[in-house]
Amino acid sequence: MMDLDFDKNHIWHPYSSLINPPPVYPITRAEGVRIYLEDGRGLIDGMSSWWSTMHGYNVPELNAAMQSQMEKMSHVMFGGLTHEPAIELCKKLVALTPEPLRKVFLADSGSVSVEVAIKMALQYWHSQGKPEKSKLLALRNGYHGDTFGAMATCDPVNGMHHLFASQLTQHLFAPAPQPKFDEPCSHEDIGELAKIVEENHQQLAAVILEPIVQGAGGMRFYSPEYLRKVRELCDQYDLLLIADEIATGFGRSGRLFACEHAGISPDILTLGKALTGGTMTLAATLCTDKVADGICSGEAGVFMHGPTFMGNPLACAVANASIELLLQRDWQQQVNNIEAQLREELAPLKNAKGVADVRVLGAIGVVEMKNPVDNKTLQEQLIARGVWLRPFGKLVYTMPPYVISKEDLSQLTSTMVEVLGNLQ
């Protein structure tokens, strides 16, 4: 049996208290779409381990890739050295992401890839002789990570980091996008952001946003036309556009990358989470030749960043296998099927007393309650029915693995309908 008393008294879990720690559930193994508790019960993982395990767990192709690479080398420094897994991965990323993203920086985690993106934008303008362009414009309800540079671009009021406000770089914020995914975007909808850009473009280095899907800031889906208009404003006022696709990359929104919904390409793109199929931590920041050449022609002559585990060959090898597996399977049809089933089977909650909204996009289903949920009680009810979800605030949402069966997805959705339909 696991020593849960030690865990309770000594191990700090994400966003938890050590004075009044929340319950944690001991997991011994994972297979397919299920994680297994110490007592043998299997839970359908409706979270894909925070968006990452798109192929499910214990995937033979991914295990084989890691085993094969481990027999060669698990790690080697990337400074002055290179290796085949990194080269192959970067080839794939350049080929798959929207043109003209052609340069790849391999990072350790999603937050670090955002830090890299911010540094790229700032160093680019410094190299252009415009160091005054040092601020970012972000969106309310946005979330970009928990490190300090990333925190500074998260919503300073409704986000999770207001305690650190006095220590963070002060950036500019535009209202959260209001037009929903299937709605047009009027001049008024983009008006305040456009005004901020017009009045502050001389000090702005870039606009940073999550394309189409605002994740941890509210699980909101917004209009592709809004994103197109932001791209147009960046072009008009000579700003870089940073697209944070850490959560949406590799098909989650119904397109391989969420930017494709709007038919645009950013100047800088961040990737993570599903990059390795949820097996190892790895992220990437891509940029255009314009950004890369601008940085490298400046004072430093180099990009000033270099993590110890950059380009880790073990992580790169399994990322290659994960991308190959995604492309071999009909991921588009898998996601379309999940979307259709989520729409149909979560629809009854639209009429539930305690529900404010139900929304679905790609392999993402969101139930927004009128009041915050009691996480402890709710999770106990979900677990008793064989389902694992991680609600926060008023939101109970799912983003299941793409390989989930129709039957398992129905168990997940019927559990959500049963449990949430009874909440006031």
What's the SSE blueprint?
Blueprint: H1 4-10, E1 27-31, E2 34-37, E3 42-45, H2 48-51, H3 60-70, H4 84-96, E4 101-107, H5 110-127, E5 135-139, H6 148-151, E6 172-174, H7 187-200, E7 204-209, E8 213-214, E9 220-221, H8 224-236, E10 240-244, E11 268-271, E12 283-288, H9 289-296, H10 313-328, H11 331-346, E13 355-361, E14 364-369, H12 375-384, E15 387-388, E16 395-398, H13 406-420
Parallel strand pairs: 3-15, 5-6, 5-7, 7-10, 10-11
Antiparallel strand pairs: 1-2, 2-3, 4-12, 8-9, 11-12, 13-14, 14-16
Helix pairs in contact: 3-10, 4-10, 5-9, 7-8, 11-13
Strand content: 15-25%
Rg over CA atoms: 21 Å
Number of self-contained structural domains: 2
CATH homologous superfamily caption of the largest domain: Type I PLP-dependent aspartate aminotransferase-like (Major domain)
- Total number of beta strands: 16
Major sheet, described briefly? 7 strands, mixed
Residue windows where pLDDT falls under 50 for at least 5 positions: none
Task: Name the structural class.
Answer: alpha/beta
Question: What's the level 1 CATH class of the largest domain?
Answer: Alpha Beta
Question: Could you report the average pLDDT, rounded to the nearest whole number?
Answer: 97
Distance between the termini: 38 Å
Give the SSE string.
HEEEHHHEHEHEHEEEHEEEHHHEEHEEH
CATH architecture of the largest domain: 3-Layer(aba) Sandwich
User: Count of DSSP helices?
Assistant: 13
> Largest sheet, order of strands side by side?
4-12-11-10-7-5-6
* Proportion in helices: 25-40%
What features would you highlight for this structure?
424 residues; alpha/beta; Aspartate Aminotransferase, domain 1; Aspartate Aminotransferase, domain 2; 2 domains; 35% helix
